[in-house]
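Key result, reporting period 2: structure in, sequence out.
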């Protein structure tokens, strides 16, 4: 379930308090304290292929686009 989907459902069932409470309890994505989903690219929000070294917090695709501007040089 995507974030936009659960917000649409919340608007539809807002007037039914029992269903609203149950939906909130079981369906809203909760905040993660650890794991893959806590580390997101600061540019695009992607969680895969995350580069955390040196405090970059980019995915590898965004790093390739921004690396030269940041000051990294390509060797070889």
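The corresponding designed sequence is given below.
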């Amino acid at each position: 379930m995507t974030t936009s989907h659960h917000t649409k459902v919340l608007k539809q069932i807002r007037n039914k308090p029992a269903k609203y409470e149950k939906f909130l309890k079981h369906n809203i994505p909760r905040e993660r304290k650890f794991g893959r989903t806590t580390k997101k690219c600061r540019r695009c929000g992607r969680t895969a292929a995350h580069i955390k070294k040196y405090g970059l917090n980019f995915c590898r695709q965004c790093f390739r686009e921004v690396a030269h501007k940041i000051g990294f040089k390509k060797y070889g």
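The chain has two domains: 1-30, 35-76. The mean pLDDT is 86. This case is discussed further under Risks and Mitigation.
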